[in-house]
């Protein structure tokens, strides 16, 4: 069942399938009694009446293919209401009926458009909330990645410091090796000098036996010195070999560390690539959000256009109301004259 209430040709109240729509300016002032409506009473209640509410009101009830209409005049200043103005409907033009139907259809379609726009705005708000949650998650991931990168950078710096310390140790060991080589050269020179002394002593031995005995003693002493020098040389050689082995092990460690540093550099490059991809995704999300904001602005512009159209229609209705008021006055004057004539 559909119930329409008109003020002249303007639909001010619409009841359809349990849904109520009121025209702007009448919100909260108009109501129907649903219990009385079940008994066939579709009277309209108006709160906070004003002198401007004095007008002709038409009630239209549509149930299936049946349609009933009734007319009444409300005079707020006099506090009276006239019912059963059937002549008003008989004198109503086709334009007035069309205007009433158009006003009712606009009131019904206006509510549908508002509901659709509200639903669209809710969907946009939900999508924006989803995008915000995605952006928060991505920002958290970026922060975690930055912390991991900082830890990796600190570890690399520590490794570099450790390598530099090893380099200084290797330099010190190299200097020690060079010192040992100088000592070996000095020992070899001493040995050569001793050999020369032995040759001289052999020559002198042939001259005198006494010198020979002394020379033999000196030779024996020199042999002892040579043996000690030989042992020292063997010890030095073993030390040199050990140092070479240590140097080889250090070289292997350095190669291993360089390999690890290369792998970490690759990991850093991969992480930088991932960060670039994430930044591109964030830029795309920002572009989508800008598009959504533009769409919302366009919707606001559409709503403003609809409001402007409604204002134009309201102006047209006011003009029609003025014309109807003039006609009503003329009709009232004629009716008064006819009543005077009958009297």
TrEMBL record:
Subcellular location: Membrane
Domain of life: Eukaryota
A Pfam family of this chain: V-set
Gene Ontology cellular component annotations, sorted alphabetically: external side of plasma membrane
Main location: membrane
GO molecular function, one term: signaling receptor binding
Domain Ig-like, residue spans: 1-72
Keywords: Immunoglobulin domain, Membrane
PROSITE patterns documented for this protein: IG_LIKE
GO BP annotation list: regulation of cytokine production; T cell receptor signaling pathway
Region of interest called Disordered, as start-end residue ranges on this chain: 177-219
Matching PANTHER family: BUTYROPHILIN, BUTYROPHILIN-LIKE PROTEIN 9
Protein name: Ig-like domain-containing protein
């Amino acid at each position: 069942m559909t119930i329409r209430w008109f003020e002249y040709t303007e639909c001010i109240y619409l009841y359809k399938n349990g849904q109520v729509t009121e025209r702007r300016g009448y919100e909260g002032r108009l109501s129907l009694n649903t219990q009385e409506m079940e008994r066939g009473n579709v009277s309209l209640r108006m709160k906070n009446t004003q002198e401007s509410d004095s007008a002709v009101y038409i009630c239209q009830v549509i149930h299936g293919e049946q349609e009933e209409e009734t007319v009444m005049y409300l005079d707020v200043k006099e506090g009276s209401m006239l019912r059963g103005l059937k002549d008003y409907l008989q004198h109503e033009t086709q334009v007035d009926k069309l205007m009433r139907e158009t006003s009712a259809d606009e009131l019904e379609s206006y509510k549908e458009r508002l509901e659709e726009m509200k639903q669209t705005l809710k969907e946009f708000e939900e999508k924006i909330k989803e995008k915000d949650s995605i952006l928060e998650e991505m920002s958290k991931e970026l922060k975690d990645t930055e912390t991991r990168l900082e830890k990796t950078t600190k570890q690399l710096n520590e490794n570099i410091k450790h390598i530099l310390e090893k380099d200084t140790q290797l330099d010190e060991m190299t200097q020690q090796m060079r010192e040992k080589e100088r000592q070996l050269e000095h020992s070899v020179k001493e040995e050569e000098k001793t050999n020369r002394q032995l040759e001289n002593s052999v020559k002198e031995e042939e001259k005198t036996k006494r010198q020979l005995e002394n020379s033999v003693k000196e030779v024996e002493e020199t042999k002892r010195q040579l043996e000690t020098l030989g042992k020292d040389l063997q010890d030095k050689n073993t030390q040199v070999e050990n140092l070479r082995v240590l140097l080889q092990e250090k070289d292997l460690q350095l190669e291993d560390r360089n390999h690890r540093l290369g792998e970490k550099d690759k990991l850093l490059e991969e992480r930088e690539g991932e960060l670039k991809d994430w930044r591109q995704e964030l830029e795309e999300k920002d572009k989508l959000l800008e598009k959504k904001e533009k769409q919302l602005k366009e919707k606001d512009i559409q709503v403003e256009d609809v409001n402007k159209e409604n204002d134009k229609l309201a102006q047209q209705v006011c003009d029609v109301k003025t014309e109807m008021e003039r006609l009503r006055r003329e009709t009232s004057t004629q009716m008064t004259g006819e009543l005077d004539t009958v009297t």
